[in-house]
DNA sequence: CTGTTAGCGCCTTCAT
DNA sequence: ATGAAGGCGCTAACAG
């Protein structure tokens, strides 16, 4: 594993000269540079990036921590982040917090392997986050809220979005609306639940315990929750799924039971994942501005890195996307 | 930015003692350890991972380089890689080669920021790859073949897969079959084209230049290619898309033109992306064993890292997934 | 233009 | 049990 020292020796110059030559500092005669480059090639020399970072005490990279690489919309979000990141000539790396929340993610959070991190994962504890903050190391939280120095939050208005969804159902004549939640430790899920309840209340409807079921934001959990909904008999006329993935699972469960969407039951999701427009029927849902969240998060990152005063909380609006999984107005039982 | 030195000073011990205490070496009296830990907390001390890696000259992480984070089946593949990687107590980080093939990706390829790299991107040149190999730094290439020391290839049998697809169409009675290719620099695309031609030939059919159109493996390119296919009049009875993404684009183009799939035209894709079973009609396609490719790649990585002799080339089989986008046997014009 | 020197933050013998 | 010293590979003054 050749080092710069070996290169310098072989080229017959000092280490610093080699360094300059390798880095294109034009303080070095082109003849010597050539010698150095030649030697480097002969030795198959590769610089050690860590040593460089250590010296420069800046990594020029920002990390994003995801719950898993399979998340429903992480690709669009990452695209947003990536666009801004590369415009700032920074590197972007992604890692998953799945399984071992304590290993990979921690290395980025606590060991200065990045200049800042964007986290979009529920399974990283507030405590760990708080421990990891420090001057000059911004943490941007997505879809999650936590107060702290150098912590910035980009959320969407989950409660309003959920309210919009529920209102939409109610205005279409539904009075019996189930809600399938996400995992208990997800703020997004909790907020969506709140929005659901607020809408019910505002419309004089009562929440029915039998119609709120727990899910986990996964397709399978949506499928299962729907199955138990069906099994327990006495179906509502509509169900609001905490996210699209679960709605997709629900669609499958209904299909298997011969229950027609939207004729027999209306369903609405949340997120507007790519799949949503391809399901059968296409899924009505609440869109999250995923790409924009990504760019905003990255923007905040660089502002914070730049040392400016940065607003700590951003709450982005959602949008109702009407497709065909709900019975339309006037089309009431 | 507190360093271990600060901690040691505050605790009133030597740096090395602090190091031991922090790392749990039980060579240190618990009373001093406590002092050190206390000091570390007070100072909000975080170790610098790079310095550690530099010292230890091993990063315990492997990197995967993707063309972009938006690819259709990266998530499944990454899951495979991730599972093996974390079982080996390594970290996994992903980065994109999009745009600046020269920046982020290069940092991992050439600057020893990872112990090995898995690459799944066409826009990284063979040359760069070859330059980056060195003893103890394995590179695993996915869906791509390159011969070199410390380079391992995991491919699927693209030509056989393509042949299977085309044979399938021919056996269903089709004689006029178009092919939409991927980008010219994609080996996968080229192999699929070869398989297509072989099948044609084996079945006594002639390749028609007007029916092979270039695409880019993106949905949009599939849409456009299909549009020009339609525009040029004289439609074939079937089209084989180089991948599913393009087939999805094609589906849209056909729908817009009122051409019914599979009644008016049969289409088949390649990859079996998640979307494939949700399109309308569900897409018949050739499945790639994505998860398995991921696990295999990671396995090879660790074998190579372990210094054993490792087979350099693996070629995985594909599988025909029959759905509803092709007219079935006997159903000929 | 080139070489010497001194760290970056950490870990690891080797003495004490 | 603890401390002093050297070095990982590189860069950045500062001299020559």
UniProtKB/TrEMBL annotation, chains A, B:
The keyword Membrane is assigned to this record: no
Recorded superkingdom: Bacteria
Residue ranges crossing the lipid bilayer per the database entry: none
Gene3D superfamilies: 3.40.50.2300, lambda repressor-like DNA-binding domains (1.10.260.40)
Domain HTH lacI-type: 2-56
Pfam family name, one: LacI
GO molecular function: DNA binding
Keyword tags: DNA-binding, Transcription, Transcription regulation
PANTHER family for the chain: HTH-TYPE TRANSCRIPTIONAL REGULATOR GALS, LACI-RELATED TRANSCRIPTIONAL REPRESSOR
UniProt-recorded name of the protein: LacI family DNA-binding transcriptional regulator
Organism name: Paenibacillus gyeongsangnamensis
